[in-house]
Amino acid sequence: MAEDMQTTRFTSLIHKLDDIPAHKMPFGEMKVLGGDQVMGFWAKIDGGSHIPAHSHPNEQITWLMKGRFDYKFGTGEEATCCAGSLVLIPSGIAHEVWYREDCEIVEFFSPPRTDMFPELVDNPYGLKD
Question: Number of folded domains in the chain?
């Protein structure tokens, strides 16, 4: 049986959100968990925050758990989203967001956003070891 043991670069495959360290950001805080091909983060974003128009090669899914935000896309589509909304952003599509209220979001990126968290290459929480 021991010869069937698989190995991974990760110390553990099970994580508790409460145990993941928070990254303090200018707009709030986020907790990051990244693998080789996908990254997720859980964030609390302060109402009144604005993320300027940008794009990236990563696909993105945003799940708004609490609050309200407005999105504007390079495609011309605009939307006001409230809790329960899901946003799919394909690779390379410009997008901009205004957080109208305090928000809690869950986002997934594929591949991981190593431009935001370069330490993801070595640490699943995006922290320096």
Answer: 1
Domain span holding position 93? 21-121
> The domain spanning residue 91 has which CATH number?
2.60.120.10
Q: Using one digit for the tens of pLDDT, what is the confidence trace for 70-128?
A: 999 999 999 999 999 999 999 999 999 999 999 999 999 999 999 999 999 999 999 98
Q: Please identify which residue in the block is written with the tokens 């495959």.
A: 13
Residue 28 within any structural domain of the chain: yes
Question: Cβ distance 37 to 111 under 8 Å?
Answer: yes
94 neighbors 55 (Cβ within 8 angstroms): yes
Query: Residue 27 has what DSSP assignment?
Result: T
Full-prediction pTM beyond 0.70?
yes
For 98, the 3-state DSSP assignment is strand
- Please say whether the beta carbons of 13 and 7 come within 8 A: no
Q: Please give the DSSP secondary-structure letter assigned to residue 111.
A: S
- Whether the link from the prior residue into 111 is cis, omega within 30° of 0, is yes
Q: Is residue 2 part of a domain?
A: no
